[in-house]
Design brief:
This is Superfamily IV 4 TMS phage holin. By secondary structure, this protein is mainly α. It contains 4 helices and 2 strands.
Amino acid sequence: MIRLLARTAIFLVAAAIGIVLTDVLFNAFGWETFDVDWGNPLAFVLAVVIFALGQAILSPFFAQIARRNAPALLGAVGLVTTYVAIFLAALIAPEGLDVAGWQGWVLGPIIVWLVTMLATFLLPAFMLKEALQGDRERGRDDA
C-alpha cells in the first residue's frame, strides 16, 4: 500500500513538474500557447490530476492496442498518451491549463513527455537519498 502511494505521489509530482517546466520554457520564448493560470491554483491541481489519471488509464490501453496491431509503435505509446492526457486536462480544466496554437499542441506535449519521463525516473532516487539521509541524521540524534 505504501509503495502504491509513493508511486502515485511520484507520478503526480512528475506530472506537475512536466507541466510547470513546459509553461516556464514557453514563457521564456514568449509563446503563450501552453499556459498555466497561476491565478487559479486549484484549477492547476485539477489539470495535473486529470493529466496524471489520463496517462495512467490510457497508457495500458494504448500499449495493448499497439502490441496487437502495430508493435513498431509501442515505443510511441508514452508520447501518444501524453498528447491525449493534455487534451483531456485542457478540455476539462481550461482554467488551469490552456493549450492553443501549433507550438502548444506540437512542442508542448513533447516537452511535457520528456520532463515527466525524466522526473519519474529521477524522483525515486532523489526521494530515497533524502529518506536515507534522514534516517542517518535521526540515528545520530538518538546516539
